[in-house]
Specification:
The complex is a heterodimer. Chain A has 8 helices and 2 strands; from the N terminus they run αααααααββα. Chain A is mainly alpha-helical. In chain B, 60% of the residues lie in helices and 2% in strands. The chains are: A mainly alpha, B mainly alpha.
Chain lengths: 211, 327
């Protein structure tokens, strides 16, 4: 159980797909203009990730190593198609807003990366927790970026106006703002990681010294 | 005997130029253009200049304090960035804009890259681009001095008339030539037109530039390449046909003189060799022409410099001097 929790939390913190592994940047930069889009994209990607991880992990012994990538793509594309049809049926507005980035989940580095690096080597249960962790981590990162961009760039939060008379910094809604927000957030996360690491090392050394 | 000999590493000979001396010299030679801007646009221009310069200096000091670096605001580089940022703004901007621009220039464009000497892009121009993308309405509203100005009286008066710059009018097709604007080349040369605070008075800018060239703080390659490329291309591919463009108008009407002499020659963000600088200047001119003529914006000088800033490492590599004896 402990290892399963570890598989889950690593995707949120240390190996966060956006801030740690820096994967799947194309949808991250493109759809993070508003928080609602970010949540939609995150949930969609998590669904695909979960589905593909389960199937790939279940049939991992049947897939020949030479043609594993095409096999992964077929499995992933199946779930993306399910996802797209469901979205079109139940959330047409969100589907419109996300546009091409819904079908593009097929080639999302995070999904393919987890299939290649994790699901094709590990049992189903591990893969489920890995997919959930990565999906939640991706969604959280996307939401943080989108929240910053929406508040600064449009002056709204989830579509509600915040302060009257605030002239939004339009650049944050535009492409440069995406890269700017992303860069600053990665900088903060790295600073935090380094700080955490050094403080851990110091305490470790102290405890070892006591023995 | 031993303590009479000092052993040090090279270089053993150096000019007595310090960063601070060069920076403050540039700052001082830019002053006439600022005074002209205040004379032309009135007290609001002075406020923008002061706020912008102060913001940059304070921000740099704060960042250096927070990151526990040595505080070197005395070298004038932050003040110069602030001054150049103000010169790139309209005099009618609300005062929170130079503050945000100054913080952006110092924190993101300069210190996030590692401080003085490590920034890829000219901080003042990057901040201008940031402000222009965020609040285009404020950034493109200019006071027209030709309509309201009559000397000292207007300096303290609040009522003003906003208008577009000559380049905007040309872009929108409202006028075809200089005569249509009701201006002469002399008016443009002295700065009696709408525009940014520091770019309008060509005369004051040229006086400052001449001093920098004489003291060899800047080389002629970048500005010459820039001006000839932009003016020449505007002349060849004129609005009314080949070789019918207005060479002088294209030089005098925008931010070209300010950009080519004071922004494109920034030590940190321009090529090291003279040949590289010439290439840099010509490329800037060509890009600025393409933006002016075919792009969405009326003026392209600032963007052209920013684009070429990114290409500086490439240029430096391309024009690197061959060692003697190497084939």
């Amino acid at each position: 159980m402990k290892s399963l929790i570890k598989e889950f939390t690593k995707g949120i913190a240390i190996e966060n797909p956006t801030f740690g592994l820096v994967l799947g940047l194309c949808p991250t930069l493109a759809v993070s203009t508003s928080l609602i889009n970010a949540i939609g994209m995150g949930v969609a990607a998590t669904f695909v990730l979960l589905g593909s991880n389960i199937i790939i992990s279940a049939v991992r012994r049947l897939i020949p190593a030479q043609i594993r990538i095409p096999c992964f793509i077929v499995i992933i594309a199946t779930f993306v198609t399910i996802n797209e049809l469901m979205m079109k049926a139940f959330f047409p507005a969100l589907n419109q807003a996300l546009g091409i980035f819904v079908p593009l989940i097929v080639v999302n580095c995070i999904v393919l990366g987890r299939a290649e690096a994790f699901a094709c080597k590990r049992p189903v249960l591990d893969s489920i927790f890995d997919a959930l962790g990565m999906g939640v981590g991706f969604t959280l990162a996307l939401c943080i970026i989108a929240a910053v961009r929406e508040v600064l760039g449009a002056g709204t939060f989830l579509g509600f106006g915040l302060v009257k008379g605030f002239e939004p910094i339009t650049v944050f809604i535009l492409a440069p703002g995406a890269l700017l927000t992303m860069g600053i957030l990665i900088g903060i996360v790295n600073y935090w990681h380094i700080k955490l690491k050094t403080s851990k090392e110091i305490t470790k050394a102290g405890c070892d010294g006591c023995k | 005997m031993a303590d009479k000999l000092t052993v040090g590493t090279s270089p053993h000979i150096h000019g007595r130029e310090l960063t601070s001396k060069v920076m403050w010299s540039v700052f001082l030679v830019l002053a006439p253009a600022g005074l002209a801007g205040v004379w032309i646009f009135g007290i609001p221009a002075l406020k923008v200049i002061l706020v912008s310069t102060l913001t940059c200096v304070v921000t740099e000091a704060l960042i250096q304090k927070l990151t526990r670096k040595k505080i070197i605001i005395g070298d004038g580089s932050a003040a110069l960035t602030g001054l150049l940022l103000a010169y790139n703004l309209s005099s009618s901007v609300p005062l929170w804009m130079p503050i945000i621009g100054g913080v952006f220039a110092m924190a993101i464009c300069k210190h996030a890259f590692g401080g003085l000497g490590a920034n890829i892009f000219n901080p003042a121009l990057a901040a201008r681009a940031f402000l222009l993308a965020s609040w285009p309405k404020h950034m493109t509203e200019f006071i027209n001095p030709a309509l309201v100005h009559n000397g000292w009286v207007k300096l303290f008066s609040a009522d003003t008339v906003t208008s577009a710059t000559p380049l905007v009018m040309l872009k929108e097709g409202k006028v075809q030539s200089l005569a249509g604007l009701g201006l002469s080349y002399w008016d443009l040369f002295l700065g009696k037109r709408g525009g940014c605070i520091g770019e309008v008075c060509i005369l004051a800018l040229l006086i400052g530039a001449a001093y920098l060239l004489w003291k060899k703080y800047i080389w002629w390659q970048t500005p010459t390449g820039f001006i000839l490329a932009l003016g020449g291309l505007s002349w060849i591919f004129g609005q009314n046909g080949f070789f019918k463009g207005d060479f002088l108008f294209s030089i005098l009407s925008g931010g070209l003189i300010l950009g080519s002499f004071f922004m494109a020659t920034d030590y940190v963000t321009s090529p090291l060799t003279r040949r590289g600088q010439l290439l840099f200047g010509i490329s800037c001119g060509a890009i600025a022409f393409v933006i002016r003529r075919f792009g969405g914006y009326p003026e392209g000088v600032s963007y052209s410099i920013l684009i070429m800033n990114a290409a500086v490492p490439l240029i430096d590599r391309y024009v690197r001097q061959k060692r003697y004896g190497v084939k």
